[in-house]
């Protein structure tokens, strides 16, 4: 015998569900088109035709892109920036946020004021470019890593989370002879794993999607990130960015449209694969520290 009551849907519910279904379709529609075209066999591909599913499946576009030096270089650049940048982001953000939770730290108010100031005001594109140029970081991966070591929003959220941790744990660790660094590494970090997982995802996605800074700071095509390469393929009139280092005339056999769509799929794939595994940590980490009591 089932005790679960079945609620009858009201007209208002039907309208809500219909709108949500329509919005979902609008969101999925472009992705479905990109997916279908990227897997369509070049022999049956027809320009300006919408494909729900490929008429004939083929990996030609993917094989072509993965065989070129341009895509390989862009992938290496993006993986390096994402890996190193994310690790440094987590270390700097959590270390600084932990320091800002200590009311006895000299200059804490000034540092917190500086953090909030950057949340409201920014230097702008030209001063940032001149700073990167004077530091000699142009055409360097570090131009995309050093200026983005942390940000005000992340610091404030992480600080709020760390302040929600029981202070008694730190006090007991210090009584047992643990140093401040030991407390941070042995007590705070293990308790902060959900938040670390959430912000690791935040930072990794931000670095993986790096486009504008890479566009203005890196002019060497061999150091382009994936997003810059995809932009060159999809938007620029000269869409042979991948083919320049390709294998002879193979790009004539594979339509440029399928190459574009395949490059978009490849640039999205890693985040789409990783996100479902981190989703539970992501949601938990965002909520932790948001309500204190």
Automatic annotation (TrEMBL):
Keywords: Cell membrane, Membrane, Transmembrane, Transmembrane helix, Transport. Signal peptide: none annotated. The chain crosses the membrane at residues 12-35, 79-100, 112-132, 144-162, 183-205, 259-278. CDD domains: TM_PBP2. This is Carbohydrate ABC transporter permease. It comes from the Bacteria. Residues 75-277 form the ABC transmembrane type-1 domain. It comes from Paenibacillus baimaensis. The keyword Cell cycle does not apply. It is found in: Cell membrane. Belongs to the binding-protein-dependent transport system permease family. PANTHER family: ABC TRANSPORTER PERMEASE PROTEIN MG189-RELATED-RELATED, POLYGALACTURONAN_RHAMNOGALACTURONAN TRANSPORT SYSTEM PERMEASE PROTEIN YTCP. Gene3D superfamilies: MetI-like. It is a multi-pass membrane protein. The keyword rRNA-binding does not apply. InterPro entries: MetI-like, MetI-like_sf.
């Amino acid at each position: 015998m089932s005790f679960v009551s079945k609620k009858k849907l009201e007209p208002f519910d039907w309208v809500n569900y219909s709108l949500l279904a329509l919005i979902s379709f609008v969101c999925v529609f472009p992705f479905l088109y990109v997916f279908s075209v990227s897997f369509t066999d070049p022999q049956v591909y027809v320009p300006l035709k919408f494909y729900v599913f490929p008429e004939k499946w083929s990996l030609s576009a993917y094989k072509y892109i993965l065989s070129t030096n341009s895509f390989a270089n862009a992938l290496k650049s993006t993986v390096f920036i994402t890996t190193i940048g994310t690790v440094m982001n987590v270390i700097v953000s959590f270390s600084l946020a932990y320091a800002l939770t200590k009311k006895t730290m000299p200059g804490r108010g000034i540092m917190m004021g500086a953090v909030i100031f950057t949340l409201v005001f920014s230097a702008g594109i030209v001063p940032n470019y001149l700073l990167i140029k004077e530091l000699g970081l142009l055409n360097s991966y570090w131009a995309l890593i050093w200026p983005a070591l942390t940000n005000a929003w992340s610091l404030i959220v992480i600080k709020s989370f760390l302040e929600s941790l029981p202070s008694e744990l730190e006090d007991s660790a210090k009584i047992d002879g643990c140093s401040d660094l030991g407390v941070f590494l042995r007590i705070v970090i293990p308790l902060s794993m959900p938040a670390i997982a959430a912000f690791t995802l935040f930072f990794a996605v931000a670095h993986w999607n790096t486009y504008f800074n890479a566009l203005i700071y890196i002019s060497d095509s061999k150091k382009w990130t994936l997003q810059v390469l995809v932009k060159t393929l999809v938007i620029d009139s000269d869409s042979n960015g991948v083919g320049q280092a390709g294998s002879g005339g193979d790009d004539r056999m594979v339509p440029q449209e399928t190459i574009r769509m395949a490059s978009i799929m490849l640039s999205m794939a890693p985040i789409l694969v990783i996100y479902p595994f981190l989703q539970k940590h992501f949601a938990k980490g965002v909520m932790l520290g948001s309500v204190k009591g």
